[in-house]
Amino acid sequence: MTGKPLSKPRQSLEQYIRSIGRHYLHAVIVMTLLIAATYLTMLVALDRHSLQQKISFLTSNQFIRFQQLANQTRALMRASADPNLPDYIIGPMSDDIHRAIGDIRAISTELHALDRSIGGNLLERLNPRDEISVELRHELNVRLEDFLERAARIADTSAEDRRQRYSFWGPIDFAVAADSMLMRQFADLIRHAHDRSDVSIDNAKRISTGLLALIAATVVLASTFLFSPLLKKLRNEQRRTMAFEQQLTILAHTDALTGLNNRSSFNAALGDLFGELERTGAVFSMLLVDLDRFKSINDGLGHPAGDAVLCHVASALQETLRASDFIARLGGDEFAVLLPGIGDASALESVAERAIEAIAAAIPFEGRGLQVSASIGGAIVPDHASDEAGLMRIVDLALYTAKAGRNTMVIFDEAALARRLEENQLSLALVLAADRNEFVVHYQPKVDLMTGTHLGFEALVRWQHPELGLLPPGRFLPLMEGTQLIRGMTRAVIAAVGRDLKTWKNAGLVPGPVSVNLPEVLLVGGEGYEFFAATVRENRLEWQDFAVEITEDVFLNRSADQILATVARFREHGLSISLDDFGTGFASLVHLRDFPFDELKIDRSFVDGIGRDARSEQIIRAMIHLAQSLGKHCVAEGIETDQQRRFLMEAGCDVGQGYHFARPEPVALAGKRLPQQAAAIHRRTDSGPATAPLRRIARR
Ligand code: C2E
Ligand code: MG
Ligand code: MG
Fold this sequence. Notes:
Elements: H1 4-80, H2 87-120, H3 122-126, H4 131-156, H5 159-169, H6 172-253, H7 263-280, E1 284-292, H8 294-301, H9 303-320, E2 326-331, E3 334-340, H10 345-359, E4 363-365, E5 368-370, E6 373-381, H11 388-405, E7 409-411, H12 414-433, E8 439-448, E9 454-465, E10 469-471, H13 473-480, H14 485-506, E11 514-517, H15 520-524, H16 527-539, E12 546-551, H17 560-572, E13 576-582, H18 589-594, E14 599-602, H19 604-607, H20 614-630, E15 633-636, H21 642-651, E16 655-656, E17 665-666, H22 667-672, H23 677-686, H24 691-699
Parallel strand pairs: 6-7, 9-11, 11-12, 12-13, 13-14, 14-15, 15-16
Antiparallel strand pairs: 1-3, 1-6, 2-3, 4-5, 8-9, 8-16, 8-17, 9-10
Helix pairs in contact: 1-2, 1-4, 1-5, 1-6, 2-4, 4-6, 8-9, 9-10, 11-12, 14-16
The structure holds ligand C2E and magnesium ion (MG) (2 copies).
Transmembrane segments: 24-46, 211-231
GO molecular function: catalytic activity
Protein name: Putative signaling protein
């Protein structure tokens, strides 16, 4: 599809050029013939002209010779009048007369031949036959012959006879009888020949003009019908090629999906800004934007959803930033912005905050609203970096720091660098943490909201760092993302919980089910299940002594089928499945309807809004209602105040967890809260409102 529009016109252009080649050949032949015809016309005209010149020359010659003859004859007559003139003078005179007569006759013969030649001339044939000239020549010839004969007779006769004639006629007879008439005839002939020549030249001019006009017409026609369409087509083709090249250039510099600049043009722009800094000292800033949990969206909802998110981010950035800012997608879910002229941290911060806000707007996708957040790192040049590599490193560092918090922006500072270094060290130490048994588990109770009765625990991991002391999961879980370390840590947590459960149970305490937060990777294969099975076996526990908490992100996992299978196996053993942090992820009603879970955990961000934010309260009511209508239990986490407890209880949620009841505590402290077995049984049989949740947990 894509190649056709380009190749088709090229093919037709080739055909066109070929057909033009044919027509051009015809045009060239026609022009050659026309040029040859013009040339021939010129030749014929010149030929005719030269014949005509010869005729005129000979006629004039003949005329001059005739006049000489007349004079010579007259002179002979005059001389003959003198009887004393000796013969040696008279003799040469009559010889001259005879020579002149011979010349005139020879010229006549030559003229006759020339007249024939000129009659055969092509141009002459176009003219009507030259009757006048023929007649004039004929009359002249007759009269001239008569004159020549008379002159010959005078020359040949005796001196006596000439004397008598001269005394009788005098020399007048010659002048009157021959001279004047013949002279007029000669003049008429010459004038007529000249006129006739003019006509021929006019003909030649007309023919040549016609032929030249035809040549011009051929040239005009050829250029109008052959070359100008060809030129037009070539111009179009060139325009198309240029447009194509332009398109290629654009493609080479833009990101096909979002239409933003790509990494290569970003590098070029960054180089330009550093050049500008060197020349004029113009400051600028850079932001590096990375989406939070983009992989979950892409893997879970598919690439169209991922693409929609990326396009949304592109337009959110375009709307937030100035036209002079340079926005690029560097790849994946990473965007970069260059902000010329921004050289102070507070200005950069406000831009980054606006960008985060714009990105956080809901994205309509297939009838639902996707939510995405971004982390942004920023730095200022030349305050923070003096070259491209340094800037990239620094911005990356700021982004990394921002990512630990998610949905935040961090402008680079020295403290961030220190944190990063510390995290690098942490990452290194984390590799050995499981083997060194540095993971410890703290327990936070789940209680009956009405009575405060203990119902179970959530196991929360901590890292007992040899130098830094006890670290919360927020400090090290992000460092584990995308690594295999989380497997070892989870195994350690499950094993620790198993050991603690055994200890408690052996001491006759009733800990209730202990929830373990199980990461997705361990739900995909059978590994997570095996950890539990081994722990249950080793410590002679019941499966129901455990519960599992998973986050909504599992719905987006590509291997949802395998996760479902693992969850089903847990539930076969009576293990309860909680949907943790409910309301913050991507669960749809369809997921909730189809996924086999037992409990919804309302995220603490909603609980936090109780008494302060009417919308949070409404959402909590809706969640509780939803859980009830799906036949699921509802647990609220992060309860810190009695007001929150009461609200939740009144809204229909009867199990909770939070600092209001207890903080997560080490095993020894947590154990102290536990009721003895007998008391628990007593409470169970005692019934009352507090026993309902306990029964639920016992049933699991
Ligand atoms: P979570 O599963 O939602 O755990 C509840 C978190 O809320 C815990 O934070 C807990 O200390 C905190 N919390 C409980 N009540 C309150 C309260 O009243 N106010 C406030 N502000 N916070 C309260 P913690 O222990 O820092 O754990 C954070 C997250 O780390 C957990 O969120 C869970 O997602 C993850 N995590 C903890 N332990 C493990 C683990 O063993 N494995 C895995 N995969 N993740 C774990
Ligand atoms: Mg949890
Ligand atoms: Mg939670």
